[in-house]
Amino acid sequence: MEKVIAALWAPDAEPREAFGARLLATLPDALGAAGARQVRINIRDEAVKPGEALIQSWQAPQQAAIAQFWLPSANARFRGAIDAALAAHSARFALWLVAESSIIPNTAHPVGPGQRTWGWSQASFISFRPDLARSAAIEHWHGHHTRVAIETQANFEYVQNLIVRPLTADAPAYDAFVEECFAIEALEQPEVFFDAVGNADRFQANLATMMDSCQSFIDFSRIDIIPTTQFDFAHRD
Model-level pTM? Predict the structure, then answer.
C-alpha cells in the first residue's frame, strides 16, 4: 500500500466552508469506491476561523482542503478513478506520494465514525532550505526536530509525511507534509500550543527552541501552514 496526500482548491465562486461541507458529504464515498482506504479529509471551516493568524502562505490561492488516503498502487496507470473523483470535487488538485511516520498517534481523543476530531489540526506543507542537502534536512528533521516538536508542544497527534515524489505535473515542490492536532484553545492561545499555560518562562523557552529548530531546516518562503478541522473515514473500509 502507498499513502497519497491530495491538496484541493475550491472553485472561485464557492466559499471555503461550503466547499468543505460538500467534500465531507460525498468525497469519502467517491474515493472509497475508487479504491482508496483510510481516507481522511481536512477542511477549513468555521471551527478553525479563529486561527486565521496562524496561516502561512506560499500558494495563491491557497489550497482549501486536504485528502489523505492509501492505495494499493499510486501509479497513474491504476489511479484514474481516484483522479476523476478528485477532479469532480475541486477546481484543481495536486497529489504527492509520501512515506508516513506516525510519531504521536491520536489515542487521547478517539472519535466515532465520521465525527469531527476533537480540537483542530495544523496541516503544514513544508519545503527544506535550498542551501541544505536533502539528506541533511531529513537528518535534522528526524534526528533533532522530532524531539523538539514532542517536548515543546501540546500536540496529541503528530504525523510526519516525507514526500517521495509528486504524482501530478503541477504539484507545488514541497518536501514534506506534517499534521499535528491540538486543543481548540491553541488556535488563539500560543501558551496552550506550546504547552506552557501559566508559565511565561516555559513559553518563551519552548517558542525559542521550536523556532531555532525550524529555521535550521525549513524554507519559510515556500510553505503553506493551514489550520484545519480533521475528519477520519477509516471506519468505512
Answer: 0.95
